[in-house]
């Protein structure tokens, strides 16, 4: 017997059940839950699965496979079922089979008919929101030995005005049986109820556990197919996100990029690495090259012919790559392909360079290889190669991956460039390039070294399990990073605090997918979380098992449940519940902002040069936290990691990180804006332009912020210079803007420290990786005797470690688990460190 967990959330119904399949294909539903609750998928699915297992007298380990409906359906609910099923299967190392939900609906209805009454054409109609519906047509007929078989006649698609007319034409040839979901029952009855040769047989049709398994057996072809490896789940979205790429903004002629061009290579030679190096800055800086604006972007398959033309110019004596070869590389899922383009006097973009990095190997031990890099001769020697190399090296560093490449031994400029990035010559390949017969150096850049302190072996003491570290897993998905982190929590000798140690930290960012839109697109972020969750989880578990001999699964699973993007939160929290349920460990739903505070206990003051990954929370009994990111800018009063916090002030309009992005866009610097502006500002004069400091008048709020006026001031300054024919160094604009932001942030945070008599200030959030913010905060805190705590740069941006750290503090303080019915709350208040069942 095969025990199958069947799940679907593509309709208003929250559907789950345990189905038993015999060797001869007989299907028996042991237990099921079908609840009509369009807004209850997140709260009901995991506890209903638990109830089904209990009722069937099974444990999660008794399951052999998972079947899940993949839509079509509103993605709000669909993502919950798919994230839950994928995580459940991943936790138990069993296959997860995705089945079109429409097929499951049809199979449930057809098999409820007797004999030949099941045969015929079915039109399955379900809700697509926006007063539209999904529809698909499936035919049922008798196969060999009288077995009922099905065939998809029309794949699922979104309703269009032509659909009824097309169906009417087909009704002349055969009858149609309509199965409609309840959410669109009125539409279905109105459109199809009066048509001749068309019969509406159900106005409450939906997938069931039985229908899901029957459809899976048909799709897989046999009972053993249920136990076979399954391809990655792919949701039937059928509708693209609504986001549109913003129109390219012309770069003001008043902005002078010439000094940046001169300093580009000097900065690298001096080893001035950005604090943002943990994130791949794919959308590079706009610069001037030979009087033209230059910009890095992602290559598209349509760029292949232009890349091949450049290749012919650069390698006339050898065998240059063909357009087909470039197209194959660009389309490959494991490559990062960048192009460098300039804008000619006619404002037309021209591709002048390219670079391709391939990443292979297992997730826990990847390797990178630069397959090719090239820049037209007339653009060489001006520091533009950095624009192509920087983002590729950032990708490798984020993965801690070594990078390999080959380069002609007589190409000394290229060899020198690679050596500045840490590559060393490992060997020589004779006559590597053909037909010229030129030799090649093999060069290697080692993977970055993770500075997290290795964990000790997990052994139970002679007194039993009391002194064994508890392993807490955190899952983060509030925005565009999918993070999984694990910390070891050990009770200290005095028993009043827990000491934490990082044993795994894996992050997958979807930033590249958002770059062309100029900001985070919520729907794209949510879909990216669904795709990245299992690879990120596996990498984190592999890292933990490598560092801690004997480690198998965590003792607790926690997830961000708010604040954040609604859809993104659903994916991470649903997956976390499923992992906790499958592993039979407690689940904690925690506050994202509280995580940024808790992670501050894992690192010492960066100004003192320390970078320890262990710490306790004693220092945060009375502290001020300044949280600065693309979505949040807040001053919080902290009375302990994991304790409710008080919001003293926040932004009245743009968050600080959002202001960076908007100013970067109006300056033509691309997205994300923070890393680019930070790098350029380091070369500029912060006093060059007296930009205003928002909300700093005596009558203004003591702790609130406003950055929209500053953004407008930058725009007006550039427009005025352009109109007057003046030129201003881009680095001075960036430095002056950044100084205005940093000045206000630090001034108000220290004001809060004074008012609350707090002697500790914590800096957190993605913008806290900004070098100037760190410098000014350290300097001013030192002047007034306030201890500054800043996490390591890799812990400033969203990550799973911060969620694990907060959960560990809650567990150590005796807080009860949240429970599997816990909802997500995109507007969760800072006063709630943990959410519980409603």
From TrEMBL:
Give the molecular function GO annotations: iron ion binding; N-acetyltransferase activity; tRNA N(6)-L-threonylcarbamoyladenine synthase activity
| PROSITE patterns (alphabetical) | GNAT
Which UniProt keyword terms apply here?
Acyltransferase, Cytoplasm, Iron, Metal-binding, Transferase, tRNA processing
Q: Where is the N-acetyltransferase domain?
A: 294-448
Amino-acid positions noted as binding substrate in the UniProt annotation, renumbered to this chain: 627-631, 661, 674, 678, 770
In terms of Pfam families, this protein maps to: Acetyltransf_1, TsaD
Enzyme superclass (EC): transferase
The segments labelled Disordered in the record are 446-470, 815-838
Q: Which residues bind Fe cation?
A: 592, 596, 798
Q: How is the cofactor bound?
A: Binds 1 Fe(2+) ion per subunit.
Q: What is its EC number?
A: 2.3.1.234
Q: Where in the cell is it found?
A: Cytoplasm
Record bears the keyword Cytoplasm? yes
Q: Which cofactor does it need?
A: Fe(2+)
Q: Which InterPro entries match?
A: AcTrfase_RimI/Ard1 (IPR006464), Acyl_CoA_acyltransferase (IPR016181), ATPase_NBD (IPR043129), Gcp-like_dom (IPR000905), GNAT_dom (IPR000182), KAE1/TsaD (IPR017861), T6A_TsaB (IPR022496), TsaD (IPR022450)
Gene Ontology annotations for the cellular component aspect, listed alphabetically: cytosol
An annotated GO BP: tRNA threonylcarbamoyladenosine modification
Transferase recorded as keyword: yes
Indicate, by first and last residue, each region the UniProt record lists as having compositional bias (Basic and acidic residues).
459-470
Q: Which reaction equations make up its catalytic activity?
A: L-threonylcarbamoyladenylate + adenosine(37) in tRNA = N(6)-L-threonylcarbamoyladenosine(37) in tRNA + AMP + H(+)
**Alphabetical list of PANTHER family matching this protein:** TRNA N6-ADENOSINE THREONYLCARBAMOYLTRANSFERASE (PTHR11735), TRNA N6-ADENOSINE THREONYLCARBAMOYLTRANSFERASE, MITOCHONDRIAL (PTHR11735:SF6)
Family under the similarity heading: Belongs to the KAE1 / TsaD family.
Q: What does this protein do?
A: Required for the formation of a threonylcarbamoyl group on adenosine at position 37 (t(6)A37) in tRNAs that read codons beginning with adenine. Is involved in the transfer of the threonylcarbamoyl moiety of threonylcarbamoyl-AMP (TC-AMP) to the N6 group of A37, together with TsaE and TsaB. TsaD likely plays a direct catalytic role in this reaction.
Question: What's the protein name?
Answer: tRNA N6-adenosine threonylcarbamoyltransferase
Annotated organism of origin: Corynebacterium macclintockiae
What lineage does UniProt assign to this protein's organism?
A: Bacteria, Bacillati, Actinomycetota, Actinomycetes, Mycobacteriales
